[in-house]
From TrEMBL:
Assigned GO CC terms: cytoplasm
Gene3D superfamilies (alphabetical): 3.40.630.30
InterPro entries: Acyl_CoA_acyltransferase, GNAT_dom, Ribosomal_N-acetyltransferase
N-acetyltransferase domain segment(s): 7-169
Phylogenetic lineage: Bacteria, Bacillati, Actinomycetota, Actinomycetes, Kitasatosporales
MF term (GO), any: protein-N-terminal-alanine acetyltransferase activity
Name recorded for this polypeptide: Protein N-acetyltransferase, RimJ/RimL family
Species of provenance: Actinacidiphila cocklensis
Length: 172
């Protein structure tokens, strides 16, 4: 794997669809914190055909280092009281984890979203036991804002998650 300084984001290409489907359809890749059971295997292809997975309500970019695919980042619109903010997420291939790739990709996505959309806030959430993602979010500039109790149903039980946020002024 290349140095973390070479990590970049780019739009999803049609050639990425098998990789995305493989990641999203694999309990091993998604374990232990993102496996929620089987989902629609045609969702990515339909989204790509509709808008290249860059839509007004939710979007996705590939995380890469040169020609190597490392995973993806995504974001979705959260409407609140006549305005909106973004909720973002990340999924990396197992070989890309634990090397700073997640921190760098999330920093790049935050800067992209603040540069190209008028939002003042971006949030992310993660399982309360996902220490690696908590550290990555904090290194990316996010602040832990609270515990959301029983917010995610995974592996037969309700689980708690931490909410993280970053606002434009945090980048100054």
């Amino acid at each position: 794997m290349n140095d973390v300084d070479n990590v970049a984001l780019r739009p999803v290409a049609e050639d990425d669809l098998p990789v995305l489907n493989g990641m999203l359809g694999s309990a091993e890749v998604r374990a232990p914190f993102q496996w929620f059971g089987w989902s629609d295997p045609g969702r990515m292809a339909r989204g790509f055909a509709e808008n290249g997975l860059l839509g007004p309500e939710n979007s996705m970019l590939m995380v890469v280092s040169g020609a190597e695919t490392l995973g993806f980042v995504s974001w979705r619109k959260i409407d609140v009281a006549g305005t909106y903010f973004w909720n973002m997420g990340i999924m990396l291939l197992p070989a890309a984890r634990g090397r700073g790739v997640g921190t760098r990709a999330q920093q790049l996505l935050v800067r992209y979203l603040f540069a190209h959309t008028p939002v003042v806030r971006i949030e992310a959430d993660t399982d309360k036991d996902n220490i690696a993602e908590q550290r990555a979010l904090e290194k990316a500039g996010f602040t832990q804002e609270g515990l959301m109790r029983s917010v995610v149903f995974r592996d037969g039980q309700w689980r708690d998650a931490y909410l993280y946020g970053i606002v434009r002024d945090d980048l100054k």
